[in-house]
Specification:
Elements (H helix, E strand, L loop, with lengths): L10 H5 L7 H15 L11 H18 L2 H23 L24 H4 L3 H22 L3 E2 L4 E2 L1 H11 L1 H9 L11 H8 L5 H7 L2 H15 L7
Antiparallel strand pairs: 1-2
Helix pairs in contact: 2-3, 3-6, 7-8
Length: about 230
């Protein structure tokens, strides 16, 4: 079960990295956390799905902020200022005599000001940001596994072989070994649908896979790329 993260947890804790983590460490941590918590690793009607979606968006907010040096500097500065202001008020009794706005709820640091989620006006826009960011990293991971190539991250025969193996070994074998062959009754319409998708990127194809195949592909990728930290 994936738990929703507390809204006041710092982004370094969201990605499980040190506050002084390098950009490379932040990217690696994002890959691990995104694969681990991706909503498509559970069925669409799973009661765990809403929690996964919220956590996945939070992970993407954290990566969006910390992966850019300028945004990260602004975030660190604001966080430091917030901590300093809180401690100064607590240490100086005279500060209490100055009229102030009513205090916000516990943990009032404006995390929503950071990450693309803070700028998204609707849930759909936030999900679009999340999807686009993960898609780029997803394609990078598949390139590393030899399943995508070229400027547009086109699927390779290895990718089609893996996709075929998710729901039918025969289809995967034919696509991988005889891309120009006529499938006939061996794989039926499903093979034709895969062929039609050859002009798309691996992430576009992934998004069109049946839910169960998405879950299995994400699990396989997690096992391959982060076997030491993420279970399949």
């Amino acid at each position: 079960m994936v738990q929703v993260l507390n809204a006041d947890i710092g982004y370094d804790k969201v990605l499980e990295v040190s506050p002084t983590a390098t950009q490379s460490q932040i990217r690696d941590a994002y890959k691990k956390q995104a694969l681990k918590s991706h909503p498509d690793r559970v069925p669409s009607d799973s009661p765990e799905r809403p929690a996964r979606t919220k956590k996945f968006q939070r992970i993407n907010d954290a990566y969006y902020t910390l992966s850019d040096p300028s945004r990260r500097q602004d975030y660190d500065s604001a966080r430091t200022y917030s901590s300093y202001s809180s401690s100064s008020t607590a240490d100086d009794p005279e500060e209490e005599e100055i009229p102030r706005d009513p205090p916000k709820a516990s943990g009032s640091f404006p995390w929503s000001a950071f990450g693309f989620g803070g700028g998204a006006k609707t849930q759909n826009k936030e999900e679009a940001f999340t999807n686009e960011q993960f898609g780029g990293v997803f394609e990078e991971m598949l390139r590393e596994e030899g399943m995508a190539e070229g400027d547009h991250a086109s699927p390779t025969s290895k990718f089609w072989s893996v996709v075929g193996g998710l729901s039918g070994g025969a289809m995967g074998f034919i696509v991988a070994n005889f891309p120009g062959a006529i499938a006939g009754a061996v794989a039926g319409n499903r093979l034709g649908a895969v062929r039609d998708a050859r002009g798309k990127s691996v992430y576009s194809v992934f998004q069109e896979l049946p839910q169960g195949d998405k879950a299995r592909l994400l699990s396989q990728l997690a096992a391959k790329v982060f076997a030491h930290a993420v279970g399949s």
